[in-house]
Amino acid sequence: MVEQETKSEFQWFVLHTLSGQEQKVKDSIEKRLKIDEIGDLIKEVLIPMERIAEVKNRKKKETLRKFYPGYILVHMKLLDEKNQLLERAWYFIQDTPGLIGFVGGDRPVPLKPDEVNSILAQIEERQDKATPKVAFEKGETVKVTDGPFQNFTGVIDEIDPARGKLKISVSIFGRSTLVELEYWQVERA
Fold it and tell me: What is the CATH number of the domain that holds 110?
């Protein structure tokens, strides 16, 4: 079978990996791209992630969390103009250690442009600022663990997830006072 690659275009496909093997699969594909000289068929391998802020042992720590654990995205030419699989690209991906296969099995379907744009927008949006790991609810009682109100207990009055801030009603000298704190400065009571 002769592969006609000239008119086919790059599309995004989803790959299913073994649990926790996303980075290993990505690294393997990127390393083998140069060795197998298949860079003309694969543009980019992406693990959609966001930064998460959490507090451990009273210290603020940022970690990365995958949007879709067990899945990675590949921007590649997999189908020709007749919508037939390009065998060279197909077998290159299938031979990757830690990979289960394409989402869609033997007939993978590329992501729609609006799906790709949505995922890329989420990555871009969440790259600049860390998202708090703990989600609080209005009316919930919390204990302040940091700052001038440390060891005070209060009730959440407002939540601002975009800024990662809470307004908490704290009793100071017998009067209820609103205090603005960051997520990491409180814990559930």
Answer: 3.30.70.940
